Amino acid sequence: MPTYRGVDGHIGNTPLIRLNKLSELTGCEILGKAEYMNPGGSVKDRAAWGIITDAEEKGLLKPGQTIVEGTAGNTGIGLTVIGAARGHKSVIVIPETQAPEKILLLRTLGAEVRPVPAKPYKDPGNYNHIARRLAEENDWFWANQFDNTANRQAHYVTTGPEIWQQTEGTVDAFVASVGTGGTLAGTTQYLKEKKPGVLSVCADPYGAAMWSWFTQGNTDTDDGDSIAEGIGQGRVTKNVEAAAVDAAYRIDDQTALTIVNQLLREEGIFVGLSSGINVGGAVRLAKERGPGQTIVTILCDSGHKYQSKLFNHAWLAENGLDPNRAIESILA
């Protein structure tokens, strides 16, 4: 008899898409894992699934218990969608600087959304600390995506094996930016166990600390800022601690935007800026190591949540970004 599953049984197994133009320009196979095809629309569905199922199995998340999390949006969406499918309500604490489309979508999906001022992690008013306190005060389950290693484990058991199978073991490198660190750490742990020579590469936006951590062993470098949402970590999380990273690159917003627009206009791939930063890292690696490599990266989410910013020419002009720059410029 056939077996049917609810939406929570359909996380992962996303397509691996060849990025044709950049593959041709670099002489490499540059492949993007289409994580926007997950039920909640992003790679964070995997972390949400891993955190929820792990907590249920351990008795930390009880039937019908509310889930609370501090998130830039996508993890909250994943928790809300998967949580609803498993009988849980969600309360999402989100920095008010995030794209308004995310807040609207979360509320539409049924989450209780609490926007708060954006504050650094060291500040008690940081959205993660607020979520933790709400869990303690209300007997809710705090997902704690940054330091809950069920996040990393979800990528070890799903993303890594999928890439290995889809490339038939020919993968030479995996490139990903760091939000919590789960995607990069868990995926490359699996791939390196299968093939020790696989390179693990962090693509980091300006102003984040992971480039500094992986290249200099500290988080002290303060070298600018980025409009990217959901990535750009300032501290070494529990998920990042285990990441065996071979190289790290700074990718600027203009490079990422140029990639995002080329993918949309010429290849029908509609993604956000974090995907552009990931692909920018893959292109940088291709340029440094030369033709013939198979490089896999993550297409994190759809661009529909960023239309008021990333695809708004007036907003881009205010931030000094040009949506019409030619893709060849990033290879110069």
TrEMBL record:
Its cofactor is pyridoxal 5'-phosphate. It catalyses: O-acetyl-L-serine + hydrogen sulfide = L-cysteine + acetate. Transmembrane segments: none annotated. It comes from the Bacteria. Its EC number is 2.5.1.47. Keywords: Amino-acid biosynthesis, Pyridoxal phosphate, Transferase, Transit peptide. Belongs to the cysteine synthase/cystathionine beta-synthase family. This is cysteine synthase. It comes from Roseimicrobium gellanilyticum.
